[in-house]
Design brief:
single chain; alpha/beta; Rossmann fold; five-stranded mixed sheet; three-stranded parallel sheet; 8 strands
């Protein structure tokens, strides 16, 4: 193994898998290295490829090391940036982590380092998307008594919004399903667990659809009628409305459905 060689570490896409790669980088003292998810990796003739198996023990060691060096807000920001799924985000976070362990002084707010700055921007964007999902997600009651919501966020925010919905809707069973990433979470009144569905429920259903409880369809219609009755055309301000509720979030709101 030469320090001049370039290595590409391939992992399973999980955060634990990424941290396992970080451990591998420091253990093997790799200088020129990239990290790529197995499902999006494209081969490189000029790089030595290595598959890194997820190792929870090694991942925890890296995470504990970061927690000793960084405040909670910064470690949360690293995780949020990872959930952005942006191209080469792994290399960006690796650069941030190298800076953390190479510096004697605290790196919090050290925006002169490009990795720290870019991670902070990504974390802010992911956090904003998570807050919007918490505000705009609307559940629909299915005929088997489960509240169901489809989402399609720009980032993988389900891990960030899980606790919010568990606390807020602790007395009912619900599912939030990410149509883009094809996985979701199910709360069974006791715990939240990840799920995958063979065919996700569509976002929109006609009034004869047996999937939803009849009372749910009646409630949605009442809410639409109320929204229309209180919507004063003379005071309509489309620009302000779009600032508060961007058009791409209208899919989640009953009053916006045609």
């Amino acid at each position: 193994m030469k320090n001049t060689d370039h290595y590409t570490l391939i992992y399973d896409g999980s955060f634990e898998g990424f941290l396992s790669c970080v451990f591998h980088v420091f253990e093997r003292k790799l200088n020129r290295v990239s990290i790529a998810r197995s499902d999006v990796h494209i081969g490189n003739l000029f790089s030595i490829e290595q598959e890194v198996i997820t190792n929870d023990r090694r991942a925890r060691r890296v995470w504990k090391g970061l927690k000793r060096k960084l405040p909670v807000r910064d470690t949360q920001g690293l995780y949020a940036a990872f959930l952005s799924e942006r191209l080469e985000v792994e290399d960006l976070i690796l650069g941030y982590i190298r800076h953390v362990f190479d510096s004697d002084a605290a790196v919090t707010g050290d925006y002169t380092n490009p990795c720290v700055l870019k991670v902070a921007v990504l974390a802010k964007n992911v956090g904003r998307e998570a807050h919007r999902m918490e505000a705009f997600v609307r559940f629909k009651l299915t005929s088997d008594g489960i509240y169901f919501a489809n989402i399609a966020p720009d980032f993988d925010v389900i891990p960030l919004i899980s606790r919010h919905f568990e606390r807020r809707y602790a007395d009912q069973r619900w599912v939030i399903y990410d149509l883009t990433r094809k996985y979701g979470i199910f709360y069974d009144l006791k715990k939240v667990e990840a799920i995958e569905l063979s065919s996700a429920t569509k976002t929109e259903h006609d009034r004869a659809d047996p999937v939803f409880d009849p009372t749910e369809l009646e409630f949605q219609q009442l809410w639409k009628d109320y929204f229309q009755s209180t919507n004063i055309k003379e005071r309509k301000n489309t620009r302000l409305h779009l600032q508060h509720i961007p058009r791409r979030y209208w899919r989640y709101l009953s009053e916006k459905e045609v």
